[in-house]
Amino acid sequence: MWILIIIGGGISVAILGPIQISGYGNLDGILSSGIKAIIAILMVVLWIFILSKIKNWIFQKELNP
Amino acid sequence: MPERIIAAAAVSVIAFFTVFFLTPVLIRALEKRNLTVKDYNRKGGAMVPRPGGISIIVGIIAAELVVFGFFPRVEILAIMITTSLAFLVGLVDDIRVMGGWFKPLALAASAIPIILLGAYDFNLAFPLFGEVRIPLLYFGIIIFMITVTGNTVNSIDVLNGVSSGFMTIASFALTISLFLLQNYEIAIASLPLGFVALAFYKYHKFPSKIFPGDSGVLALGGMYGAIAIVGDVEIIAAVALLPAIFNSFLFLSSMKRITEHRELKSKPVNTEEDFRLKATPHKDAPVTLVRLIVAGEPLTEKQVGYVIFRLAIFSGILAIITAFMTGVVI
Q1: Do residues B298 and B277 lie in contact, with contact meaning Cβ atoms separated by under 8 Å?
Q2: How many domains does chain B have?
Q3: Where does the pLDDT of residue A12 fall: very low under 50, low under 70, confident under 90, or very high at 90 and above?
Q4: Which of A20, A36, B199, B204 has CB 3.0 to 4.6 Å from B164, enough for a Cys bridge?
Q5: Residues near B34 by Cβ (< 8 Å), separated by ≥ 6?
Q6: Best CA proximity match to B242, nearest among B176, B125, B149, B304
């Protein structure tokens, strides 16, 4: 889980950091925040999915050595 | 610098000894009013006073008021208010059994003072890779963090001494991390959490003389989450709490929904005749950290507690390593 957090952090900074929306005036900040929020939520869902698969794999391995 | 050392020493002493001396008084008061619950894992099924959250919150507030006196910052105020609200949420649940959704929603509301006082920073710091600025999302993180830490600490409160012992270790790991990141005033504000948990552990460890109840564990968890937000150490705090987060994750992924312990149809562990804990074979029982620990062989409650503490020490060390990594940017 710790390694996934570190990797997830790196991916977050690499993907979310550069996102900048321009050309919509006062809505620029809200739009870029909104897009970052959606991507971040999708990343969390993916993180939980990967964690579930790892958990199931470990349990299967324990049950069928 | 001398001011900080004096403040650190003062709040540590106040936090520890307030709980140390108040808890026996609370035990007698609760026993007198017959506010006790049965400890099913103990021989003879002893009746244990509950909730101990009152002595915990008094210790926290007494110490934090002193911190505020030394460093009158909104962050300290936010910690006090959020912790108090989390305590009240737990107290409601102690007095009157509420549904599964009550605690998460009420804890989410406890996070509002942090937002209203502006005691936050939009930047989320990741180890090695730097910070990301996430203004809109960060409000969600504030609410999510308090809810998660509160419920996570609550979910680990399953055996004598585990929640207070675990929080002692995680809190001190967080405090060390804050000192390493040179966030001295918030580090001093976090000291009461560790010392309150440590003092309460003396009475909560096996065989428990008092249970913290929801009011106690939500106060501890709520304060932990508040410190993580105002101290800008969200990721480090999550790492220190990993065993408890893993427990919550296992529970939720096996049950597929938020469920109160009281609503469970099948228990994850059973108590044998010799009072050792054994994993149940029921397929519909939730997978929990305790169930995993005793899956190999039955263990006593004390032994399971020590396994969880070893896991907490390991994740605490990982949290401190993460703090070092947060200071380094690739």
Answers
A1: yes
A2: 1
A3: confident
A4: B204
A5: none
A6: B149
What is the H or E stretch that residue B132 is in? strand B130-133
- For B19, other C-beta atoms within 10 Å of its C-beta total 30
Chain A contact probe: residue of B136, B236, B253 with most A CBs at under 10 A: B136
Cα of A11 to nearest chain B Cα, Å: 9
Burial string for B137-164 (b: 16+ CB within 10 Å, else e) reads bbbebbbbbbbbbbbbbbbbbbbbbbbb
Q: Is residue B202 part of a domain?
A: yes
B6 domain-assigned: yes
Q: Which residues of A touch B256 (CB under 8 A)?
A: none
Which pLDDT band holds residue B117 (cuts at 50, 70, 90)? very high
Higher pLDDT pick, A53 / B43? A53
* CA distance from start to end of chain B: 31
- Give the gyration radius of chain A's Cα atoms: 17
Q: Which residues of B touch A30 (CB under 8 A)?
A: 136
Give how many domains chain A has, as a whole number: 1
Q: Which residue range(s) make up the domain with B78?
A: 2-254+303-327
Chain A residues touching residue B137 (CB < 8 angstroms): 33, 36-37, 40
Residue B277: inside a domain: no
Q: Quick check: B132 and A12 CB within 8 A? A: yes
- Closest residue on chain A to B315 (Cα): A2
A6 touches chain B (CB under 8 A): yes
Q: Is A36 at the interface with chain B, CB within 8 A? A: yes
Lowest-pLDDT choice from A18-22, B81-85, B137-141: A18-22
> Does residue B185 sit within a domain?
yes
| Chain B neighbors of A48, CB-CB under 8 A | 249
* Cα gap B3→B69, rounded to integer Å: 12
Could you tell me how many helices (H) and strands (E) chain A has, helices first?
2, 0
